[in-house]
Amino acid sequence: MRKHPAKDVIDPDMLDRLAALAVKVGVNLQPGQDLLLSAPVEALPLVRRIADHAYAAGAGLVTPLLSDPEIALSRYRHGQDASFDRAAGWLYEGMGKAFDENTARMGIVGEDPMLLAEQDADKVGRVNKANSLAYSPARERITRFDINWNLVAWPGSAWARRVFPDLSEDDAVRRLADAIFAASRVDGGDPVAAWEAHNATLRERSDWLNGQAFHALHFTGPGTDLTVGLADGHEWMGGASVARNGVVCNPNIPSEEVFTTPHAQRVEGYVRSTKPLSHMGSLIDDIRVRFEGGRIVEAHASKGEAVLHKVLDTDEGARRLGEVALVPHGSPISQSGLLFYNTLFDENAACHIALGQCYSKCFRDGDTLDADAVASRGGNTSAIHIDWMIGSAEIDIDGVHEDGRRVPVFRKGEWV
Ligand code: ZN
Ligand code: ZN
To answer: Do 163 and 302 reside in the same domain of the chain?
Structure first.
């Protein structure tokens, strides 16, 4: 095995442009601000470029946290039973403290989406649960949008092989890198200008939805007849937005979605997933669930059903929705025809819903609401936030006003 198989096949100029974009437009790091950066160890070339751009932008301190798939597997191979209920709570508490001190957050995704597919589902479920619960101090501050944050992608070799199983490793990494650069809009003339234009389009969509102030959205399609009530005083967001610390950032690169907070008590009907979900190294496919009074009362999956049930049992809020997002089927990521097995990409190729925690920012005056106010407007609380895709070229969506009046929003997967 070569040490850095990907190093020679990824265009260094494009990688540098991605790093520059992530610092400038993604997290929009402020002079003197610290940056906490997590990444798979394989992504070190991108981590280094990001750190370089961060310090050039006046960063206070850049702290990288690297993870390694081999070490994760060692735990499953040799870890004693009690290990599978443990998580590094002290680390997540430290992250929470760092965010309270205005440290910005960046995450690089690029892991093997099926790293744990062969591992014992019960152990995987226990690890996920322990981790979700321990991560609360950090997740709370992110879903409250206390600080500027950003996710960006690295074309990991194992991930690339999953996306392009018929190609050699080098070719697969090259193709995935190109797909990431294109979706992240760094392959054109001026990435910063491209993001300004893109953000303006997303703003137009969310402004229109905010003007409508729908009471609910009604999704219909194969295997789907779902009414998603929207939270009282919900606000649609998309693209660039202002964190509570006043910094405008783009939390996801790429991003094609406009999203808001559903009402945790007002979701009715059934829905079927349209893409497999990769959740912490496990694949969950063909999800079918039924909601009553906002709560999932029945859940099936053709693959990964045991992991899905464990996820739903994390806590009470894990069976309710915390996000609904609209993405046209014609989005560039969807048109690439690729299945990424990675939420950052797949969620930007299709309409989706998320189980669990809501974004309290997705309310009018969201900055001023405390947890009780969010809950009383229908915002959900949970230790998880898991997006899964329900959109396709066959999905229709109506906006439903409180008086029952209906407005077509999507037809055949596209904005009306
Ligand atoms: Zn989303
Ligand atoms: Zn989400």
So the answer is: no
Which residue is listed with tokens 């690295």? Answer: 154
Cα(54)–Cα(139) distance, integer angstroms: 23
In a domain, 250, yes or no: no
- For 108, the token pair is 């690089």
In this structure, which residues have their CB less than 5 angstroms from ion ligand 1? Answer: 257, 259, 325, 347, 387
Instruction: Note whether 321 and 355 are within 8 A (CB).
Output: yes
Report pLDDT digits (tens) over 242-300: 999 999 999 999 999 999 999 999 999 999 999 999 888 889 999 999 999 999 999 99
Structural domain containing residue 401: 213-237+257-415
**Do 337 and 377 share a structural domain?**
yes
> From ligand 1's centre to the CA of 345, what distance in Å?
10
Rounded to the nearest whole angstrom, what is the distance from the C-alpha of residue 9 to the centroid of ligand 2? 31
Q: How many angstroms separate the CA atoms of 332 and 72, rounded?
A: 33
Q: How far is the CA of 279 from the centre of ligand 1 (A)?
A: 15
pLDDT for 96 beyond 90? yes
In terms of domains, do 162 and 279 share one?
A: no
The angle formed by the CA atoms of residues 95, 139 and 159, to the nearest 5 degrees, is 90
Give the residue from 324, 311, 162, 353 showing the smallest Cα distance to 258. 324
